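Researcher: We're teaching a course module on how sequence relates to structure. For the next exercise, students receive a sequence and then see the predicted structure as C-alpha coordinates, so they can try to spot secondary structure elements on their own. Here is the exercise chain.
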Amino acid sequence: MTSVATLQTTEPAPARRPVPRRFVMCRPDHFDVRYSINPWMNPDAPVNRALALAQWDALRETFERHGHRVDVVPGEPGLPDMVFAANSGLAVGDRIMSARFTHPERAAEGPAFHRWFTGRGGVEVVAAVELNEGEGDFALIGGRFLAGTGFRSSAAAHREVELHFETPVISLELVDPRFYHLDTVLMVLDDATIAYYPPAFDETSRTLLTGLFPDAIEATDADAAVLGLNGVSDGYHVFLSPQATDLAAALRARGYLPVPVDVSELLKAGGGIKCCTLELH
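Model: And here is the predicted structure for the students to work with:
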Protein backbone atom coordinates (compact mmCIF):
# COMPACT_ATOMS: atom_id res chain seq x y z
CA MET A 1 0.00 0.00 0.00
CA THR A 2 1.35 3.42 -0.96
CA SER A 3 1.34 5.93 1.90
CA VAL A 4 0.00 9.48 1.62
CA ALA A 5 3.49 10.75 2.28
CA THR A 6 4.79 8.86 -0.73
CA LEU A 7 2.16 10.43 -2.98
CA GLN A 8 3.03 13.98 -1.94
CA THR A 9 5.31 15.88 -4.29
CA THR A 10 7.31 19.02 -3.74
CA GLU A 11 6.34 21.87 -6.04
CA PRO A 12 9.35 23.55 -7.64
CA ALA A 13 9.97 27.12 -6.60
CA PRO A 14 8.57 29.56 -9.16
CA ALA A 15 11.18 30.99 -11.52
CA ARG A 16 12.16 34.55 -10.71
CA ARG A 17 11.43 37.08 -13.42
CA PRO A 18 12.97 40.51 -14.04
CA VAL A 19 10.69 43.54 -13.97
CA PRO A 20 11.67 46.48 -16.23
CA ARG A 21 12.62 49.52 -14.16
CA ARG A 22 13.15 53.22 -14.78
CA PHE A 23 16.22 54.79 -13.24
CA VAL A 24 17.71 58.25 -12.84
CA MET A 25 21.49 58.61 -12.96
CA CYS A 26 23.97 61.51 -13.04
CA ARG A 27 27.18 61.17 -15.05
CA PRO A 28 30.28 61.82 -12.89
CA ASP A 29 31.79 64.56 -15.05
CA HIS A 30 32.70 66.51 -11.91
CA PHE A 31 33.41 63.57 -9.58
CA ASP A 32 36.19 64.08 -7.05
CA VAL A 33 36.95 63.61 -3.36
CA ARG A 34 37.52 67.15 -2.09
CA TYR A 35 36.25 66.75 1.47
CA SER A 36 35.54 63.99 3.97
CA ILE A 37 31.97 63.48 5.21
CA ASN A 38 32.15 59.71 5.67
CA PRO A 39 34.86 57.20 6.67
CA TRP A 40 35.50 56.16 3.08
CA MET A 41 36.57 59.60 1.86
CA ASN A 42 40.21 60.69 1.84
CA PRO A 43 40.86 63.97 -0.01
CA ASP A 44 44.58 63.14 -0.15
CA ALA A 45 43.99 59.98 -2.20
CA PRO A 46 44.04 60.59 -5.96
CA VAL A 47 40.86 60.06 -7.96
CA ASN A 48 40.92 58.73 -11.51
CA ARG A 49 37.96 60.55 -13.05
CA ALA A 50 38.42 58.88 -16.43
CA LEU A 51 38.09 55.49 -14.74
CA ALA A 52 35.07 56.67 -12.75
CA LEU A 53 33.41 57.79 -15.99
CA ALA A 54 34.18 54.51 -17.73
CA GLN A 55 32.80 52.49 -14.82
CA TRP A 56 29.65 54.64 -14.66
CA ASP A 57 29.15 54.28 -18.42
CA ALA A 58 29.46 50.50 -18.05
CA LEU A 59 26.85 50.50 -15.26
CA ARG A 60 24.40 52.52 -17.36
CA GLU A 61 24.95 50.29 -20.38
CA THR A 62 24.46 47.19 -18.23
CA PHE A 63 21.11 48.47 -16.96
CA GLU A 64 19.96 49.27 -20.49
CA ARG A 65 21.17 45.95 -21.86
CA HIS A 66 18.99 44.23 -19.26
CA GLY A 67 15.88 46.12 -20.39
CA HIS A 68 15.83 49.09 -18.01
CA ARG A 69 15.37 52.73 -18.94
CA VAL A 70 17.87 55.31 -17.69
CA ASP A 71 17.25 59.07 -17.56
CA VAL A 72 20.43 61.10 -17.13
CA VAL A 73 20.65 64.30 -15.09
CA PRO A 74 23.50 66.67 -16.06
CA GLY A 75 26.07 67.07 -13.30
CA GLU A 76 26.94 70.55 -12.09
CA PRO A 77 30.41 72.00 -11.44
CA GLY A 78 31.31 72.15 -7.77
CA LEU A 79 29.06 69.20 -6.85
CA PRO A 80 31.41 66.19 -6.97
CA ASP A 81 28.95 63.85 -5.21
CA MET A 82 26.04 64.59 -7.52
CA VAL A 83 26.80 61.28 -9.25
CA PHE A 84 25.12 59.59 -6.28
CA ALA A 85 21.63 60.16 -7.66
CA ALA A 86 19.95 57.81 -5.19
CA ASN A 87 20.39 60.51 -2.56
CA SER A 88 18.52 63.07 -4.65
CA GLY A 89 15.02 62.26 -3.46
CA LEU A 90 12.10 59.84 -3.62
CA ALA A 91 9.80 59.23 -6.58
CA VAL A 92 6.61 57.19 -6.32
CA GLY A 93 3.95 57.50 -9.01
CA ASP A 94 3.37 61.19 -9.76
CA ARG A 95 4.86 62.37 -6.47
CA ILE A 96 8.48 63.35 -5.98
CA MET A 97 10.20 64.72 -2.89
CA SER A 98 13.65 66.18 -3.49
CA ALA A 99 16.32 65.75 -0.82
CA ARG A 100 17.59 68.00 1.93
CA PHE A 101 21.18 67.03 2.67
CA THR A 102 22.77 66.88 6.11
CA HIS A 103 26.21 68.20 5.18
CA PRO A 104 26.67 71.70 3.71
CA GLU A 105 29.09 70.29 1.14
CA ARG A 106 26.15 68.55 -0.57
CA ALA A 107 23.38 71.04 0.19
CA ALA A 108 23.19 72.44 -3.37
CA GLU A 109 22.46 68.98 -4.80
CA GLY A 110 18.90 69.06 -3.47
CA PRO A 111 17.87 72.18 -5.44
CA ALA A 112 19.80 70.98 -8.53
CA PHE A 113 17.83 67.73 -8.69
CA HIS A 114 14.64 69.56 -7.72
CA ARG A 115 14.98 71.74 -10.83
CA TRP A 116 15.45 68.67 -13.00
CA PHE A 117 12.47 66.85 -11.48
CA THR A 118 10.26 69.92 -11.94
CA GLY A 119 11.33 70.28 -15.55
CA ARG A 120 10.08 66.78 -16.39
CA GLY A 121 6.45 67.90 -16.01
CA GLY A 122 3.45 65.78 -15.10
CA VAL A 123 4.63 65.23 -11.55
CA GLU A 124 4.11 66.90 -8.19
CA VAL A 125 7.51 67.91 -6.81
CA VAL A 126 8.06 69.10 -3.26
CA ALA A 127 11.28 69.81 -1.40
CA ALA A 128 11.90 67.97 1.85
CA VAL A 129 11.69 70.15 4.95
CA GLU A 130 13.42 67.66 7.22
CA LEU A 131 16.88 66.20 6.65
CA ASN A 132 16.23 63.55 4.04
CA GLU A 133 18.79 61.89 1.76
CA GLY A 134 16.35 60.12 -0.53
CA GLU A 135 16.83 56.49 -1.47
CA GLY A 136 20.07 56.55 0.43
CA ASP A 137 17.90 56.05 3.51
CA PHE A 138 14.49 55.01 2.15
CA ALA A 139 13.74 51.65 0.51
CA LEU A 140 10.28 50.90 -0.90
CA ILE A 141 9.17 47.29 -0.48
CA GLY A 142 5.76 45.67 -0.22
CA GLY A 143 3.82 48.93 -0.07
CA ARG A 144 5.91 50.47 2.71
CA PHE A 145 9.20 52.26 3.21
CA LEU A 146 12.05 50.93 5.30
CA ALA A 147 13.87 54.04 6.48
CA GLY A 148 17.29 54.51 8.04
CA THR A 149 18.33 57.11 10.57
CA GLY A 150 21.25 57.68 12.90
CA PHE A 151 23.71 59.46 10.61
CA ARG A 152 21.95 61.29 7.77
CA SER A 153 18.16 61.34 7.33
CA SER A 154 16.32 62.42 10.48
CA ALA A 155 13.56 60.50 12.25
CA ALA A 156 11.33 63.52 11.56
CA ALA A 157 11.89 62.93 7.84
CA HIS A 158 10.37 59.48 8.22
CA ARG A 159 7.10 61.04 9.36
CA GLU A 160 7.25 63.67 6.60
CA VAL A 161 7.66 60.96 3.95
CA GLU A 162 4.88 58.86 5.47
CA LEU A 163 2.44 61.77 5.26
CA HIS A 164 3.44 62.99 1.80
CA PHE A 165 3.42 59.60 0.06
CA GLU A 166 0.60 58.19 2.22
CA THR A 167 2.79 55.13 2.72
CA PRO A 168 3.77 53.48 6.02
CA VAL A 169 7.37 54.02 7.12
CA ILE A 170 9.28 51.59 9.35
CA SER A 171 12.17 53.33 11.11
CA LEU A 172 15.52 51.56 11.48
CA GLU A 173 18.51 52.80 13.50
CA LEU A 174 21.98 52.59 11.93
CA VAL A 175 24.90 52.28 14.36
CA ASP A 176 28.11 51.85 12.31
CA PRO A 177 29.53 55.08 10.84
CA ARG A 178 30.95 53.16 7.86
CA PHE A 179 27.37 52.47 6.85
CA TYR A 180 25.83 55.91 7.13
CA HIS A 181 22.97 55.25 4.69
CA LEU A 182 20.45 52.41 4.70
CA ASP A 183 21.37 51.49 1.12
CA THR A 184 24.90 50.58 2.20
CA VAL A 185 23.60 47.70 4.36
CA LEU A 186 20.19 46.72 2.98
CA MET A 187 19.14 45.83 -0.56
CA VAL A 188 15.60 45.16 -1.76
CA LEU A 189 15.64 42.05 -3.94
CA ASP A 190 11.94 41.84 -4.80
CA ASP A 191 8.64 42.92 -3.31
CA ALA A 192 9.01 40.58 -0.34
CA THR A 193 12.73 39.86 0.06
CA ILE A 194 15.77 41.76 1.28
CA ALA A 195 19.45 41.14 1.82
CA TYR A 196 21.02 43.01 4.73
CA TYR A 197 23.92 43.21 7.18
CA PRO A 198 22.53 42.78 10.73
CA PRO A 199 25.50 44.26 12.69
CA ALA A 200 24.87 47.67 11.08
CA PHE A 201 21.56 48.03 12.97
CA ASP A 202 20.64 48.44 16.62
CA GLU A 203 18.98 45.56 18.45
CA THR A 204 15.43 46.88 18.04
CA SER A 205 15.90 47.29 14.28
CA ARG A 206 17.39 43.81 13.92
CA THR A 207 14.36 42.37 15.71
CA LEU A 208 12.02 44.29 13.39
CA LEU A 209 13.81 43.08 10.27
CA THR A 210 13.87 39.47 11.47
CA GLY A 211 10.12 39.59 12.06
CA LEU A 212 9.32 41.25 8.74
CA PHE A 213 11.73 39.26 6.58
CA PRO A 214 12.43 35.85 8.13
CA ASP A 215 13.78 34.60 4.77
CA ALA A 216 16.19 37.51 4.28
CA ILE A 217 19.72 36.91 3.03
CA GLU A 218 22.26 37.97 5.64
CA ALA A 219 25.45 39.43 4.23
CA THR A 220 28.88 38.61 5.63
CA ASP A 221 31.44 41.03 7.04
CA ALA A 222 33.38 40.69 3.79
CA ASP A 223 30.32 41.62 1.72
CA ALA A 224 29.67 44.70 3.83
CA ALA A 225 33.30 45.84 3.69
CA VAL A 226 33.06 46.30 -0.11
CA LEU A 227 29.54 47.83 -0.03
CA GLY A 228 28.25 44.62 -1.58
CA LEU A 229 24.72 45.43 -0.43
CA ASN A 230 24.77 48.73 -2.30
CA GLY A 231 23.25 47.05 -5.32
CA VAL A 232 20.15 47.09 -7.49
CA SER A 233 17.74 44.21 -8.18
CA ASP A 234 15.04 43.91 -10.82
CA GLY A 235 13.59 40.84 -9.15
CA TYR A 236 15.93 38.43 -10.92
CA HIS A 237 19.12 40.19 -12.01
CA VAL A 238 21.06 41.65 -9.07
CA PHE A 239 23.62 44.26 -10.09
CA LEU A 240 26.33 44.27 -7.42
CA SER A 241 30.02 44.67 -6.70
CA PRO A 242 32.19 41.87 -8.14
CA GLN A 243 34.03 41.82 -4.80
CA ALA A 244 30.88 40.67 -2.94
CA THR A 245 31.49 36.98 -3.66
CA ASP A 246 29.72 35.56 -0.58
CA LEU A 247 26.60 37.55 -1.39
CA ALA A 248 26.70 36.50 -5.05
CA ALA A 249 26.81 32.84 -4.01
CA ALA A 250 23.89 33.32 -1.60
CA LEU A 251 21.86 35.04 -4.32
CA ARG A 252 22.47 32.23 -6.81
CA ALA A 253 21.35 29.69 -4.22
CA ARG A 254 18.07 31.58 -3.89
CA GLY A 255 17.37 31.75 -7.63
CA TYR A 256 18.68 35.25 -8.41
CA LEU A 257 21.27 35.99 -11.09
CA PRO A 258 24.15 38.18 -9.89
CA VAL A 259 25.43 40.69 -12.45
CA PRO A 260 28.81 42.04 -11.30
CA VAL A 261 29.56 45.66 -12.21
CA ASP A 262 32.74 47.31 -10.96
CA VAL A 263 32.36 50.90 -9.74
CA SER A 264 35.35 50.74 -7.39
CA GLU A 265 36.58 54.25 -8.24
CA LEU A 266 33.34 55.69 -6.86
CA LEU A 267 33.88 53.69 -3.66
CA LYS A 268 36.56 56.26 -2.82
CA ALA A 269 33.66 58.60 -1.98
CA GLY A 270 31.68 55.89 -0.19
CA GLY A 271 29.37 55.10 -3.08
CA GLY A 272 28.40 52.05 -5.09
CA ILE A 273 25.89 50.86 -7.66
CA LYS A 274 22.76 51.77 -5.73
CA CYS A 275 24.19 55.16 -4.74
CA CYS A 276 24.37 55.95 -8.47
CA THR A 277 20.79 54.84 -9.11
CA LEU A 278 17.48 56.46 -8.16
CA GLU A 279 14.43 54.41 -9.10
CA LEU A 280 11.28 56.07 -10.38
CA HIS A 281 8.74 53.73 -8.81
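Model: If you want an answer key for the exercise: Residues 49-65 form the longest helix (17 residues). The chain has seven helices and 15 strands.
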